[in-house]
Amino acid sequence: MQHSELWNRFAGWLDQYDWMEMLLGLGILLLVAWIANWLAKHVIVRGVRRFSQLLPLNHNGALSRFKVIDRFANIVPALVIKIGIAQVPHLSPGIIRIVGMLAQAWVFITIVLTISAALNVVNELYQRRPVARNKPIKGYLQLVKIVLFIVCALLIVGTFLQKDIFTLLAGFGAMAAVLMLVFQNTILSLVASVQISSYDMVRLGDWITMPGLNADGDVIDMSLNTIKVQNFDKTITTIPTNRLITDTFMNWRGMSESGGRRIKRAILLDQTSVHFLDNDEYQHLKSSFLLDKYLDEKNQEIAAWNESLGPQANSKLNQRALTNLGTFRAYIQNYLQHHPGIHQEMTLLVRQLEPTAQGLPLEIYCFSNSTDWAFYENVQSDIFDHLLAILPEFGLRVFQQPSGADLTNMGLVSFSASPETTPMQQEH
């Protein structure tokens, strides 16, 4: 009874001050909204999280990591305010309408953000599939997000203007030209993404090269508007997606899938060191098992040729003979055929190129049996280390421009160092 009287007195006193009653109502509404938010975040969300851990969709806690449930829980306080603002006494209809619109807009934004986070979960689950490397869907999901945010913006505008969304869409055609200009890059990127996916031009993990954009490395991310390439110096190059359609680029996937990487390099030989083999050189080279069979077969071929000449064979100008260059070429061919780092099922040849003022190029064209960069470089270096070191055994010389030391040994240039002109003494 006493409590009832106190309450009646307090209510009577409160009726005399409308602003006090309005503030008390707002305070109660905010308190209820805070309690509802606390219950949603600390009770409902935690319970849903524990339940979601049992679902196969929640791979590695994807739902929690992208905050799908947390975002959706933000709807609760907005709904409480939207419903309860009309119950606050002495508030003007205009304020009630504005607060309700703001709460409604917050609900729309929260729903779109929740769907966006759910799409991120879908993308992560899709990336677990083997086909994801060939057909990424991140770009398409980003397009869906753009559409969702556009629809959300229209709903919010319709809420504040108190117009139906279809009425707004009716006037949407008049803005098409403006929107085409604003979303030009997005539209181009969407078309490029479809073409890239359809023609299988680029996949995640591919090594691509675009010198014009300073890109030379592995594709680590493909989205609607951009493709990220991690260069071999660990820098990141971001390429607009449509540039892969309009510009030329090189994809090294074919090399990676073939199992072999091409070695194409030439040794420049001094042409004055090319000569016919004499008997001592012949016997010396025949001791190599890589040349033994070649020299026997070549000798028989040359003997048959010379014999077919008849009396004309007496002149050395008409006879064929072994050369140190041809023998060296055969040696390289056999050496590569026995090398454990060379792919024997792919093209393997040693050829002469057109002589130049820088010497006679003897080119090696073959493939390593691994595409690993370090292995490839080691095999290539090992081959040319050996060939450069064994050249003198064939009486051949490498051609190179004369250096300062060469000119000094020839007496054409002399260097004199005077103690008075040393840099250290000049400093003092």
TrEMBL record:
Keyword Membrane: yes
Domain (Mechanosensitive ion channel MscS): residue spans on this chain: 185-253
Keywords on record: Membrane, Transmembrane, Transmembrane helix
Principal localisation: membrane
Membrane topology reported for the UniProt record: Multi-pass membrane protein
Protein localization: Endomembrane system
Transmembrane annotation, as ranges: 20-40, 72-89, 95-122, 143-162, 168-194
Protein name according to UniProt: Mechanosensitive ion channel family protein
Originating species: Alkanindiges illinoisensis
